[in-house]
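Rotation project, supervised by the postdoc (A.L.). Task for the rotation student: set up a whole-complex structure prediction and record inputs and outputs verbatim in this book. Inputs entered:
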Amino acid sequence: MNDKVTLMKGNEALAMAAIRYGADGYFGYPITPQSEVLEKLEEEMPWETTGMVVLQAESEVAAINMVYAGASCGKAVMTSTSSPGFSLMQEGMTYMAASEVPALVINVMRGGPGLGTIHPSQADYFQACKGGGHGDYHCIVLAPASVQEMADFVGLGWDLAFKYRCVSMILADGLIGQMMEKVVLPEQRPRRTQEEVEKQCPWAVTGRTGMRPKNIITSLELDDDKMEANNLRFQATYREIEAHEVRCETVDTEGCDYLIVAFGSMARIAMKTMELAAQEGIKVGLLRPITLWPFPSKEVAQAAAGVKGILVPELSAGQMIEDVKLAVECKVPVEHFGRMGGNVPTPEEVLDALKNKLIK
Amino acid sequence: MKSEIIIAGFGGQGVLSMGKILAYSGLMEDKEVSWLPSYGPEQRGGTANVTVILSDDRISSPILNAYDIVVALNQQSLDRFESKVKPGGILIYDSYGIHQAPTRTDITIHRIDATEATFELNNSKTYNMIVLGAMLKASPMVTIESVLKGLKKTLPERHWHLLPLNEQALNKGMELVKE
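Outputs recorded:
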């Protein structure tokens, strides 16, 4: 057996991957179903090994603003929460986007709206991908479908955040957070030295020594023309991200009659639906968006060419389906199937939906 | 080879940790594994279940509607999951507190007296290992050696003196399933 393979929950993998990345700080407030992130970090005590700060804030509002402060200093900082807590963080998210600081924010979604339930949901898709906070901004949104991806996307999220000076999100759900699977964690990297931080982030507030110009981190700009220029710069960055950072996985899409577009845990369930469909002689392919923003529109359109219909199963009333419809420009029938409030469909339910809505 | 299993019972019976030990045993044999608990506000007295999949290939859905093996450790679990055993599959249930026995004829049913067996071992905490032993007799998907290796990996060293007792419980459980 490979000694590097271990078994852990998705939430624990997030925590371990953060330490291994050489993270500088985690600030969070416990909420089911992601409390194991903070618990695992407290158990590992990285402040005694790498020097990483782990702090339980007094609220989600405090946590996201601690992240904002750490990010402004060029540090690799993160928070994690679940849906109700993510709503509380929206002000901080838009401020960070406007201040162009890199950070990692994780939402392990649960059933809503309101306090809702503690069980899996994907109903924060709009909030994550279409804004959530006010103003024209985007976060890069990564949707893991396995415990391995929970671990991998921590590093990827931070790398992208630093590359584009934006907020990266991991949008998981209670199912991926709570399940255990095999995972290979990344090698331990040392935390960056202060010198390295200043070199990587010349814009950061690091204490002005010598003669370098002042760095100011702010989201406020009362001069309309300057604020519009800021917006144009943000939009240019978003176009760059759209051009270079789209990620998706396709399974058996070549020659399939029907296409399922699903992300996260729903994609895993859909893969079993494909097995069941194959037993009945129905050829179903899967396209799994890995980046929800930027959305793999071209890839969806490509996979949709020649199929008789597309099913978009989601743990919501139908959110990602809007992006799928835009991608295929209504050239193919696109149907939604969803469960809500923390309920998760079985692979059989998804197959029934495919038959009832598309095959009839 | 793929085994899709659900273990269901009362909170406090060791359902989740039995699943965890099984998953670790699969890991020891380089199998793909998934372990999904019915997480929630359940505590001792409530119901708990865990879905474990061991497979030679990539695992698709960690959540299922039909199982190769159902282990039901109380009446509610038996009522809820008897119909979820795949035709030709295996149902194992503890006779303790069962007033309505399963009726299906297209599956293999093993009635085990696991609760009673804990009295013989004089240790109620061995319960889930007895059940695991019975399950591995009914369907030897991993070896007992792998279970013990997995246990050693999950238990902190201060509990290693309990390994022989766990092995005894596994063997006891195997005796409960007749050919």
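Student's summary: Chain B touches chain A at residues 20, 23-24, 27-30, 32-37, 39-41, 59-66 (CB under 8 Å).
Supervisor addendum: The longest strand of chain B covers residues 85-94.
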